[in-house]
């Protein structure tokens, strides 16, 4: 039970510190081949294509082509228009599809794509220092539009939601799920290349708060859930067991339910304080009427960001969902990302198989297909070989019966 004094410390104030991220005026760009792999250079002299994004794959438009941001290498192009495709020349030679420039090479075609505002290494430095980072407007307007359509928000607010996994509805859901900078950051921050989705991607549309319904309280995320589930028994220190990726499908504002954080609290390796109102308590029927809302005073932070932004944070960070006080639905994708050795929150195999059979699967790049397979198929790799893990219906029935039987005894 909550202490009766708890009411005194929470007076339904909504006065968090507001961090407002502005829409960037400039983005870098990607140059990708037909498979969706990135043209890159490590030494500023020779080119190659690679299946991931780091500083080597970041380009900027220069007068008559592109300049490699980290090394200054220059390429000549036929066009630099975003969304276009072009041949490239390096030191007077055509660039082939694999990045080589040998004489007699067949010229490759490269697609000019929307890139991040900053270098991946800069985002990583911020994430490692602060425990969170914003990839502001890292998604292209085309992807944001697709997500808003599937989520039935913003220009699509009157659209009826479709009962089909979002991944199968629109290729934009695959593009956001495999967004390469956030995946690179997860891999670096969790010290493993072997990462997974903790559950299937979903788009939520948050409507106006009615002033009555129970609300989400403070918590840290899967797999930690300290104080609200306690899945990880001791502080994990440098061994990071989960990250959370919040995608702003709509603009996130203080008034429309942008997430509340206690930024930097991941470093405490501790649960949020009970007196702030934790999820296990706030979801109890009648809690809000009796005790008011969870804490939202000046020790909390709210991050306002334009649609298309990804906020990535250490899953230990204390946070809670905001409340929408506007009449417009606010879209979001809240995604847990975990190392491959953590048991996921939910099975993703059914959704993945539905995606395989969808038109959307045909509409994404080969690179996106490879990446989403890695992210959504949980595996056992052991002495007996490699196996995919999914739900076993027979055994599920058995454990459910046993669980029901044990409950009835008490
Ligand atoms: Fe959460």
What does this structure look like?
The structure is a single chain. The model is unreliable at 1-9 (pLDDT under 50). The chain is globular and about 75 Å long. The chain is built from 12 helices and 22 strands. The protein is of the alpha+beta class. The two termini are 21 Å apart. The longest helix is centred in the C-terminal third of the chain and has 17 residues, at 393-409. The chain has helices at residues 6-9, 120-130, 141-151, 166-169, 171-177, 180-189, 279-282, 287-291, 349-356, 359-363, 366-376, 393-409; strands at 17-20, 29-32, 38-40, 48-50, 59-62, 65-68, 74-77, 85-86, 88-90, 93-94, 110-114, 132-135, 195-197, 204-206, 243-248, 260-262, 301-304, 310-314, 318-320, 330-339, 378-382, 385-389. It has 2 domains: 8-20 and 119-378, Sandwich (Jelly Rolls), CATH 2.60.120.620; 29-114, no CATH class. Helix 2 (120-130) crosses helix 6 (180-189) and helix 3 (141-151) crosses helix 5 (171-177). The structure holds fe (ii) ion (FE2). Residues 219, 221, 319 line the site of fe (ii) ion.
